[in-house]
Amino acid sequence: MDFSFGPEAGELRTRARAWLTEHLVGPYAQALGLGGPGSEHEGVDARRAWERELGRGGWIGTGWDAPAGAYGQQRLSLTGQVVWAEEYAALRAPGRVGHIGENLLAPTLLAYGTPEQQARFLPAIARGEELWCQGYSEPDAGSDLAGLRTAAVRDRADGRLRVTGQKIWTSLAREADWCFVLARTEPGSRRHHGLSFLLVPMDQPGRVEVRPIRQMSGTAEFNEVFFDGAVAEEVVGGEGDGWTVAMGLLALERGVSTLVQQIGFAAELERVVRAYAASGAPDPVLRERLVRQWAELRTMRWNALRTLGAAGDAGVAGAAGDAGAPSVAKLLWGGWHRRLGELAVAVRGARATAGPGLWERGAPYERGLDEEQRLFLFTRADTIYGGSDEIQRNIIAERVLGLPKEPR
């Protein structure tokens, strides 16, 4: 397969780089490199303003299955989306706070939503004005999503659905204006039956509460969200058909963003290689591990390009055609990133057990950690969040290889 890009891609790359260079100034320049995995709490105000700047430039929703300009967005081919994403990552532009709305909810609304829902929500996402979070996992229903207990019942007074329950591991819940929530709307239903995909405003004092979850890295990217009779404004895909919508959304979760992620991985790997070179103590075992990490990262890039190319030029939504591709990608990058975290501290040796201010009396724990220590601690979760390795292997076994399902 030819992985090279044509001349049109070169022209877009030049245009994208020029736009980013022109606009990444002032407070946005101060936010360069902020907001990535493990640091989503950093520079939120500047990154939220940056989201609106991207909207004014038409850079949000470039891969939506909608005509160019329908919601104020540019329309880029699949190759164009990759080029834009690569330039964005290469310049270390601020981590996106609107990516959940742009890459998950919007394509889902285009596939399952009504024209009224699309007209209500897509323009605000494209302008960077409304942010979203995802209400799927629960304390007793993480990887086993069909076991969720959050319920929504009709209010006899006004006929609106009111949501009660708890969601967990919710990224950007403190910043989000809305949450798309999978809830049980049919009393007595079991597993994937009787579920609905609901759109819930987060600004409902006394009915929606967000509590940060402090991690062992000292930061709190994830949250638990409590709903106590919160009003659901919309149902997507029809009441009781939430499982179909939810699974359609999950199939969209790994597309062009995988390639963006890999650029960040490459920067982290380069930092670890520099640390190894500066150590002055060549270790053939560590050197072999570093070479293997580099080779595996290249392989992941080629696999991502092959998968996206096989989907044609239909954008992110087209990437859902291969049922096993998202699971393969998650298994590859989750294990790779976790091994990189282990390698980062192995290169440091005994020095990895201490850091600037780590033992300073009264100092916040996270302030004493350097980048490699944070990388190691955060990547412990890579093979769990977003669907554990065990779940991904089950998906491949059952949906791709046709093996019998596990007994329940």
Automatic annotation (TrEMBL):
Domain Acyl-CoA dehydrogenase/oxidase C-terminal: 240-401
PANTHER family: ACYL-COA DEHYDROGENASE, ACYL-COA DEHYDROGENASE FADE29
Name this polypeptide is given: Acyl-CoA dehydrogenase family protein
Keywords recorded for this protein, A-Z: FAD, Flavoprotein, Oxidoreductase
Acyl-CoA oxidase/dehydrogenase middle domain mapped to chain residues: 133-228
Keyword flag Oxidoreductase: yes
Origin organism lineage: Bacteria, Bacillati, Actinomycetota, Actinomycetes, Kitasatosporales
Family the UniProt entry places it in: Belongs to the acyl-CoA dehydrogenase family.
Keyword Flavoprotein: yes
Pfam families given in the database record: Acyl-CoA_dh_1, Acyl-CoA_dh_M, Acyl-CoA_dh_N
Residue stretches making up the Acyl-CoA dehydrogenase/oxidase N-terminal domain: 8-129
Cofactors, names only: FAD
Signal peptide: none
Organism field: Streptomyces polychromogenes
